[in-house]
Write a structure and sequence with these properties.
- The protein is an alpha/beta fold.
- The chain has two domains: 85 residues; 156 residues, Reverse transcriptase/Diguanylate cyclase domain (Alpha-Beta Plaits, 2-Layer Sandwich), CATH 3.30.70.270.
- Helices cover 62% and strands 16% of the residues.
- Helix 1 runs antiparallel to helix 2 and helix 4 crosses helix 5.
- The longest helix is centred in the N-terminal third of the chain and has 41 residues.
- Bound molecules: magnesium ion.
- Magnesium ion (MG) binds next to strand 2.
C-alpha cells in the first residue's frame, strides 16, 4: 500500500514536471521571445531565448509554489488522518484496525513461506481497581507506561497494538514456540515491576493468551479470538500467567 502511494506521488511529480517544461517552451517561443524582441529590441537569438526562459520561470514560479504548497498541505492532512485512523492517541501505539490490516497481509506472506509465529493477547490484571483507587488520570498514565514497557520487551520486527481499554495485542512473526515463551515470560516479568506514577507506586500483573499460527491457521480474526480465549484461561488459572490456545482442548 505504501509502495503504491509512493509510486503515485512520483508519477504525479514527473507528469507535473513534463507539463511545466512543455508549457515553458510553448509560452517562450510563441510569446515571450516576441515581447522581449519588441520591448528591449533584443534580437531573436540565443540571448533572447535565454532571457525568455528566465522571465517565463519568474512568471510561473508563484503558481508552481502555490500548487506545491497545496500538495504538501494535502499530504500533511492525509498523514494526520492516517494517524487518527490507525493509532491510539493515549499510548501512541497502533490500534486494532491497523493491527488487523497489517497482520492479515503479513500472515498471508509468512505462512506461504512456511514461517511460524504467534499472536498474543494480553490483559492487565485488576486494572479497574487502579482506576477506582487512583482515578482515571493515573489509570491512563499507567496504560501509557505499560505501553512503553511492552514495546521495549519485544523485538524490532514484532508488532504491538492497543486492542481496547487495558488490552494489548502482539504479532510475533518468524519465531518458534520456545522463543515466543521467552518473550511472553519477559513481558510478564516486566509488567510485574512496580510503576511509579505521580508518587504512587502501583503494582500490577498481566494475563497472556498465545495463539500460534501456521500454514493452516492464518486467519487473523480467529487467531485473535483464540488468543483471547487463552488469555481468559490464564485469568481463571489465577492471573499473572500465560496460556497457549489448543484446538483439541477448546475452552
Ligand atoms: Mg483487565
Amino acid at each position: 500500500m505504501e509502495m503504491k502511494k509512493k509510486h503515485l506521488k512520483w508519477s504525479y511529480k514527473i507528469i507535473f514536471s513534463i507539463i511545466g517544461l512543455l508549457f515553458i517552451k510553448v509560452f517562450e517561443f510563441a510569446f515571450l521571445n516576441r515581447v522581449i524582441h519588441w520591448f528591449w529590441k533584443i534580437p531573436l537569438d540565443s540571448m533572447g531565448e535565454f532571457i525568455g526562459i528566465i522571465v517565463t520561470i519568474l512568471i510561473l514560479l508563484p503558481f508552481i509554489i502555490i500548487v506545491l504548497n497545496q500538495r504538501i498541505r494535502l499530504e500533511g492532512a492525509e498523514e494526520k488522518y492516517r494517524k487518527l485512523a490507525y493509532y491510539d492517541p493515549l499510548t501512541g501505539l497502533s490500534n486494532r484496525r491497523y493491527f488487523e490490516e497489517k497482520v492479515s497481509h503479513s500472515l498471508m506472506q509468512d505462512s506461504k513461506e512456511g514461517k511460524i509465529g504467534a499472536v498474543i493477547f494480553i490483559d492487565i490484571d485488576g486494572f479497574k481497581l487502579v482506576n477506582d483507587t487512583y482515578g482515571h488520570e493515573i489509570g491512563d498514565s499507567l496504560l501509557k507506561e505499560i505501553g512503553k514497557r511492552l514495546l521495549a520487551s519485544v523485538r524490532k520486527e514484532d508488532l504491538i497494538s492497543r486492542f481496547a481499554g487495558d488490552e494489548f495485542i502482539f504479532y510475533l512473526p518468524n519465531v518458534d514456540k520456545a522463543s515466543v515463551l521467552i518473550i511472553v515470560k519477559r513481558i510478564i516479568e516486566d509488567i510485574n515491576k512496580p510503576f511509579v506514577i505521580n508518587n504512587n507506586t502501583i503494582l500490577t500483573s498481566t494475563s497472556v493468551g498465545i495463539s500460534f499460527f501456521s500454514e493452516k491457521r492464518k486467519d487473523i480474526k480467529s487467531l485473535l479470538r483464540n488468543a483471547d480465549k487463552a488469555m481468559y484461561k490464564a485469568k481463571l488459572h489465577g492471573k499473572n500467567t500465560y496460556e497457549i490456545f489448543n484446538e483439541d482442548n477448546e475452552y
